[in-house]
Every structure is written in structure tokens, then in C-alpha cells.
Amino acid sequence: MLIINAILLGIGLAMDAFSVSLANGLNEPHMKVKKMSKTSFVFGFFQCFMPLIGWLCVHTIIHYFKQFETFIPWIALILLGYIGGKMLIEGIRGDEEETAVLTKSTLLLQGIATSIDALSVGFTIANYNMVNAFITSFIIGIVTFAISFAGLHIGKKFGTKLSGRASILGGIILIAIGLEIFISAL
Hints:
There is one protein chain. This protein is globular. By secondary structure, it is an all-alpha fold. It is built from nine helices and no strands. It has helices at 2-27, 33-59, 62-69, 72-93, 96-99, 104-115, 121-124, 130-162, 166-185. Helix 1 runs antiparallel to helix 9 (166-185) and helix 2 (33-59) packs antiparallel against helix 8.
């Protein structure tokens, strides 16, 4: 039952990473498999790491985390809005060459923004012992890796067909994800 719950949690948490991966694939349709793997790893890593941080907070510094929890949707909105807005503006201006490469700093921001809501999963697994919390988080990371890789692949296919409009569409997707995270938290 632990594994099934972890897989379902992973699928639910990975939807934001899937959408951002889709946007990244749209934006960079000629991305190599090695970069796709590294990108998916970043999303998987953060989706694995954040529930562990949440679990640790529940068992140590819960009162500090409760105050931070109200800022999670704002942080996701600001990070994804910034990245998506930048892509959108550059796509409208026609700066496709500049937006064609996913930088390490942008990927890091995307990884944090899409996984920050996974901190709250630490609360749902608070009754797990450390080993079960680690197993659950690890499975969430693996599921996120696979779903993100699929999103990149799908985005690449459509990115080639959309060519000049890929940055605009990718930017809109990222902004929409940030808004969705923010609105669903209200």
C-alpha cells in the first residue's frame, strides 16, 4: 500500500513538473537526451527532497514551518511568473535564439517553483517512520523524473511543429501554472 500511495502522490505532484517540462520541450525542440535526463533529474530531485524537508519540519521545527506555509503559493507564482513572463516577452520580441537554451539557473528556479508545494506532503507522511518517508519520497522523485521526461519529449515534438511560437506558448504555460498554484491555495 505504501508503494501505491507513493506512486499516486508522485503522479499528483509531478503534474506541475510535467507542464513545465512540456514548456521547456516546446522552447528547446532540439534538446539532446542527455540534457533531457539532467532536466528530468532536477525535477525529480526537488520533488523527492521537498517532502523529506516537510517530514523533517513536522518532526522538528513545525511552528516555524507553519508561518512559512502561507508564502508557498506566492513564491511559486513569483518564480513561475518571472520565468514565464521572460519567455513570453522574448517570444513576442522574436528573441527565439536567446530563449532556445534552458540555463542551469532557470532550471533550478523551475525545480524549486514546481516542487515547493511538495513540502506539505511532509505533513501527510508525518506518521511514517524515517525509512518509509524516504521510500515514499524516493518513489515520488522517480515518478516525477519519468513524467518530466515524457513532458520534455512531447514538448519537443510539438516545439518543432510550432517553431517561432514555442516561447510564447511555453511562457503562457508557466504563467498559468503559477496562477493555478496560487489560486488553488486560496
